[in-house]
Amino acid sequence: MGKIIAKPQLGFMEAVKLACGRLTDFSGRSRRSEFWWFILVFAVLAYVFSFVLGLCRIPVLALTIVTELFSLLALAAVVRRLQDTGRSKWWAICAWVLDAIGSVYTATSPVMEELQSVNPDPMAVLDLVKNPVFLCLTGVTFILEVAIFIFCLLDGKPEANQYGESPKYIEVD
Predict the structure, then answer these.
(1) Is the CB of residue 139 less than 8 Å from the CB of residue 129?
(2) Tens digit of pLDDT for each residue in 15-50?
(3) Which residues pair with 171 in a beta bridge?
(4) How far apart are CA 60 and CA 116, in angstroms?
(5) What whole-number distance in Å separates Cα of residue 26 and Cα of residue 89?
(6) Radius of gyration of the chain (CA)
(7) DSSP string of 31-77?
(8) Which residues lie closer than 8 Å to 125 by C-beta, 6 or more apart?
(9) Sign of the alpha-carbon dihedral angle for 151, 155, 160, 164
C-alpha cells in the first residue's frame, strides 16, 4: 500500500461549477469544499428566491411547495457528502421528506390563516406550537438535520468505500 495524499482544496468557482453540474447525481462522493461552497451559493439564492416569491403574494401552501421543490436541488449534494463519509443517502432523504411533510402540515394549518390576517392573534402561534403533530415533526426533523450537519462537517474516508473512490485523497507509490 502506498502513501495517501490529499489533492489541493477546490476553489470557490471550481467547487460551485462541479456541484451545479451534478445537481441530479445521487451517486458518488463530494468533498467538503465542493459541498460547502455550493451550500453557500444555494442558501443565498434560496433567500433571494423566497424573498421574491414573498413579494408576489403567493398563497402559503403554494410557496411551501415551491420552496420544497427548490430544496430538492441541494439534496443530491447532501447525499454525495454523506456518502463521502460512508453514510447512507437515506439520512438526507428522510430529513427532506419529514421537512416537506412538516412544512405542508404547517402551511395547511388553520392557524396560518389567522397569522396572515391584518391583526393576527399572538395566541395563534401558541396553538400551533402546542400541537403534538407539529412538535413531533419539528423535533425529529431538527435532530435529524443536526446529525446530517455534523456528518457533513467530517472529513471523507481516504480509502474507497461502497460509493466510490475518494474525491480528495489519492494513493501514490
Answers:
(1) no
(2) 899 888 888 889 999 999 999 999 999 999 988 988
(3) 4
(4) 9
(5) 8
(6) 20
(7) -HHHHHHHHHHHHHHHHHHHHHHHHTT--HHHHHHHHHHHHHHHHHH
(8) 111, 115
(9) positive
| pLDDT tens, position by position, 159-173 | 889 998 888 888 776
The C-alpha cell at 163 is: 460509493
Helix (H) or strand (E) holding 149, with range, is: helix 132-153
CA distance 133 to 138: 8
Report the candidate in 12, 5, 62, 67 with the shortest Cα–Cα distance to residue 35: 12
Structure pTM?
A: 0.85
Residues near 20 by beta carbon (within 8 Å), at least 6 away in sequence: 38
Name the one residue in this structure whose C-alpha cell is 453540474. 21
| DSSP-assigned states of every residue in 86-147 | T--THHHHHHHHHHHHHHHHHHTSHHHHHHTSSS--THHHHHHHT-HHHHHHHHHHHHHHHH
State the maximum Cα–Cα separation within the chain, in Å, rounded to a whole number: 71
